[in-house]
């Protein structure tokens, strides 16, 4: 799996996002939360979106920084997500804290979050 995050992997469908938050499951590793749902109407195996709450970071520049960090940690560690070839998932990666973690801390949390997801999804 290449270390890329192409446009085709980005979660943009409003319908899929609604399904994600209404019927999806989640895994957490403070301060990150991964909401996921198995979907059938997409061409890619994974579709991923990121979100940082305006509640915790009032300034757009701060939110954009953490969204950039989340996208980068996803891009570098998506190979850790082990799913079957017939399953397709939609993900939303959320940063849910006022704490300003460093890039290295977010990277470590992302890795453990993806490992936790893989263990949960392959039950």
UniProtKB/TrEMBL annotation:
PROSITE patterns: RIBONUCLEASE_P (PS00648). GO terms for cellular component: ribonuclease P complex. Keywords: Endonuclease, Hydrolase, Nuclease, RNA-binding, tRNA processing. Its EC number is 3.1.26.5. One of its GO terms (molecular function) is ribonuclease P activity. One of its GO terms (biological process) is tRNA 5'-leader removal. It comes from the Bacteria. It is an enzyme of class 3 (hydrolase). It holds the Pfam family Ribonuclease_P. It catalyses: Endonucleolytic cleavage of RNA, removing 5'-extranucleotides from tRNA precursor. Consists of a catalytic RNA component (M1 or rnpB) and a protein subunit. HAMAP family: RNase_P. Belongs to the RnpA family. RNaseP catalyzes the removal of the 5'-leader sequence from pre-tRNA to produce the mature 5'-terminus. It can also cleave other RNA substrates such as 4.5S RNA. The protein component plays an auxiliary but essential role in vivo by binding to the 5'-leader sequence and broadening the substrate specificity of the ribozyme. This is Ribonuclease P protein component. It comes from Flavobacterium noncentrifugens. The gene is rnpA.
